[in-house]
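Pipeline run #58 for the internal structure catalog. This entry was flagged by the ingest filter as a single-chain record with no existing model, so it goes straight to prediction. Upstream metadata was stripped on purpose; only the residue string is passed forward. Reviewer on rotation: M.T. Logging verbosity set to normal.
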Amino acid sequence: MKLFRTVLMIAMLAVVGSSQVKNTENTVKLADGAKSPSASIKDIAWLAGNWSGTGMGGVSDETWGTPNNGVMVGTYRLVINNKPIFYEMMWMMEHEGSLILRLKHFSSELVGWEEKDKTVDFRFVNKTGNRMNFSGLTYEQTSKNKLTIYLALRQKDGTLKEESFVLTRSK
């Protein structure tokens, strides 16, 4: 019986491990063709509130509304040397029995970066401990009022660089 349980555990780990691929030190992504596991907006409702801290060489502010009908709406702002650099409009939503984070970028003059009908999508990969992992993006709740976000950024040469944002809840 013990051998059977060991073999079963190894098989389960192989299945779980095959649905995700390590991206950077603190981010993962869904493997090609893998489906996002079950999740609901309740799993990340703790994110609601105002967060401020450092990231990308400046001051990062992120605000999330409370969940409503399976959706949380958020905004992001990066300020460097007292000048806004860019903004994001974000939607964390239940999608096909799981979660997806969709966002659009805007310049400091509110000119959109993505095409009119396009969004940047981060599909849910898994929850491990206090981490909510999306493809290329990890939200880690380090305490009730502390948050670290890890983002895998593709560089011009095709490599990935991990950027971290260390934020504190302000309200």
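catalog note: The first strand starts at residue 20 and ends at 24.
catalog note: The two ends are 52 Å apart (CA to CA).
status: ready for reviewer M.T.
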